[in-house]
Structures are given as structure tokens and as C-alpha cells.
Amino acid sequence: MRRGKIFDIKHYAIHDGPGIRTTVFFKGCPLRCWWCHNPEGISPEPELMVKPDRCLEECDLCLASCPEQALSKPQDSIEVDTSRCRSHGLCAAACPTGALEMAGREMSTEEVMAELLKDRIFYERSGGGVTFSGGEPLQQPEFLGSLLTACRRHRLHTVLDTSGQAAYDRIAAVREDVDLFFYDLKHLDPEKHREMTGTSNERILDNLKRLSRTDNRIEIRIPLVTGVNDDLDHAHRVADLIAALPGIRDVSLLPYHHMASRKYQNLNKPYLKPDAQPPSDSAVSAFRSVLEAQGFRVKIGG
Question: Which of 98, 99, 147, 149 is the most buried (most CB within 10 A)?
Fold first, then answer.
């Protein structure tokens, strides 16, 4: 029985592929993107999230539950000594309000499938299905493969949302059970990509070229951040790259937003690019026009 680590299962998702979907978010990612909207998915291990505004002044159930005595309440709001915390989740289990919450849990293939099959009627009526996202699902290849195989057995449409930063044999091992790849392109300049994500884009681009030569359907997804990758020169480079790849016709532009900043606070992690700004409507429109001029179908958002 395969087991893996996830941090969320989102029911009734309408921006993660066609139709109504259920999205499974995997723990662990090889990239460290400045603008990451799911920081709770970066570490492969479970993490404690603290939401001070939910903490009850008169409650101290979490303090008594922690064997490491990593919690304190100096000003009527919970604080965590991260050097002592072991993220075992006993405090979150004791918290009645959700002020403490574990980001990440281990589940079996069977347990995840039981959740996915609850929504089967919505998939059938809307042309939807299941999306595997993260984090990076290819960081847990055996668990991902077992879920994709099970989805195929139940005839569920599947989307794999990936950065492409993995050994190609991991992609090859699962691709026949993937109906649609969402393939992220952050930046085509290798040095800027390394600066923005912590890794080179060499493997990502090579994997995209290899995958494009198969019969898999691929949609390119491009996060746009002001002054980072939303300029017209980058738009032309992206258009030229994917125009040379067989069969790719769909692109989604994903404008940056600030909604994840609270998550970083809850995880006690630094926001790597606090001054990042959403692109202007005119910048998004200009980027879109470059791609459409090469014949691509372009949409804004997921």
C-alpha cells in the first residue's frame, strides 16, 4: 500500500483544469520561487501553522499537549519555539479553534481515492476530474503513480501540475496515465531562473521538449510578476520556444497576487519577495497579444 505526504485536498476546484475538479496538493518542492503561493508545500515534512487571530485568550489546551514545551502564551496569543517544536501535531489536535493547524499529513492511496470518488458525480456532469498539484507531485513518484493508476482504473480525468524539475524517467513513468499536463515556465533566462527559483531551468526546458514529442496534451502556465518576467522580450522568447514544440496550443497566464503573504506569517517563514507586485492589466494584455499572434489559445488565470 503506497503512502505519501499531502497538505490539502481541495474539493470543487474550478481553476485547476476543465470542469469541476478535486485537487490533491503534494508536500515537497525542489524550487524556491520568490512568489510561491503555497509555501506550506515547499518542505516535504509536516509543519505547524499558527493563526493568532483564532487563539482564545482563556484557552491553554495546546500548552499542556506539547511534550517538548515548545509553546508559550506571553500576550494572550500562542507563540512557538521553532527550535523545540517537532511538528507532531498534538497541539493542533488539541486546539478547538484552528489557531494551530498542521500543514501536511500522510495518507495512503486508498484514503486519497476515497476522498476523490466522493466527487465523482461532479466530474461526470461537468467534464471534470482530479488534479495533482503541490508542491511538486513528481517529488513523490511512486505515490503519484499509484494514484494516477487508480484514477485510470476508475476512469477519472487527470491533470498533473508540474514545474518539470525532476528526472525525465519520473515523467515517462506516469505520462500514459496523465490526460493533461500543466507545465510551468517561470523564466527562460537561466541565470534569472536560478535567482528567482534557486535552480537552473536546463532540466525543465529539456523535459518540456522531450514531453512535447509524445502524444500527451500540454498546457503551458506562466506566472507573471511585475519587473521579473512580464516584459515583451520575455513574451517573444516564450512564444518562439513553444511555437517550435509540436502540439502545444494552450497557454495560461497567471498574474501574481499577494494573497499568500499571510501563509508565510503563519509558518514563521520569510516572504522572499515582499516587494513583488501584480502585473498591470496592460502588461498582461501585451504579453497575451504576443502569444496570440503566434496562434496560441491564451487565457488569464487557472
Answer: 147
Strand 71-72 versus strand 79-80 pairing type = antiparallel
Q: How is residue 87 written as a grid cell?
A: 511538528
Residues near 250 by beta carbon (within 8 Å), at least 6 away in sequence: 218, 219, 220, 296, 297, 298, 299
Residue 208's closest CA among 194, 224, 222? 222
Candidate CATH numbers 3.20.20.70, 3.10.560.10, 1.10.600.10, 3.90.580.10; the one for domain 3-44+105-300: 3.20.20.70
Which residue bears the cell 499537549? 65
Domain boundaries, the chain: 3-44+105-300, 47-103
Distance CA 73, CA 93 (A): 18
pTM: 0.94
> Distance from CA of residue 270 to its chain's centroid?
18
CATH topology of domain 47-103: Alpha-Beta Plaits (3.30.70)
Who's near 24: CB < 8 A, 6+ residues apart? Answer: 6, 8, 9, 112, 116, 130, 131, 132, 133, 147
pLDDT in tens, 38-82: 999 999 999 999 998 888 888 889 888 989 898 888 877 788 888
- Is residue 198 within 8 Å of residue 231, measured between CB atoms? no
